[in-house]
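**Discrete fold encoding**
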Amino acid sequence: MEPRRPENHRQYEAQDATEHEQDSSIAKFRPHPEAVREEQGGNQPRNRIAEYQSGDNARQANFPSLGGLGRLLARRDVSVSFLLTAIGQYTLMASVWGFIPILAKRMGAGNVQISLLVTVHIVFIILGSLIASRHARLVKGRGMLTISFVLMAAGIGLAAIAPSLVWIFAAQVIHGLSIGLSYPVLMGLAIENVPPEERSTAMGLHQSIYAIGLFAGPWVSGILADFLGIQPMFAITALACLILGVLGVRWLFLDRPLVKRTA
């Protein structure tokens, strides 16, 4: 005699049949383990990172050698551009980010006026960069750089003889304009004739060398200001900037035309 089955056995049988059909449909789309191993080249799993590093898409890391750095620094267009940028950064740290706020405070400027001095300087840096990019096709870098270093010296020289805050604001305008004109031109000249594979190295050197100006600006100007005073220090800085800047630009463009005309 067969055991009595529960009344809802038909419901259980229908549920089992449905689950069996679902398992069968999933198995149709599931790859066989042996086929997966065969595609992967055996029982060892594929190391896709190793394949990428050793395949056609591998990227070779080219680290600059000491000889390569030396060759870049031996190029006049590269090294002189770096040094001229360092001069500009020296004047920036010696004046705007150094002793201009101190001088302005001695003349009675408050916190708002000192903040405006920095803001005005930054605005005219942006304006100078726009002018440099606008006239880059008409005026060759020599003319632009000569003008910029004359303005740079004039701005610092104006601070050296400034009797009031109005003169300090005028000095900020002139110096900011000069930095905006010179920096993008010098950065472009530093890599203009450098091979593409060495340009990233040249830009790294550019930032390393002009950092010398960032360091020496507060240090040297601080020593001079301590012995001579702030405004005499500005006068010496302006004179040195004018002489070194103009001579450096002349040396940089010994064999290049002054003006480039376009049709």
Observations:
- The radius of gyration is 35 Å.
- The CA atoms of residues 84 and 223 lie 22 Å apart.
- The chain has two domains: 9-44+46-52, 68-252.
- The mean pLDDT is 77.
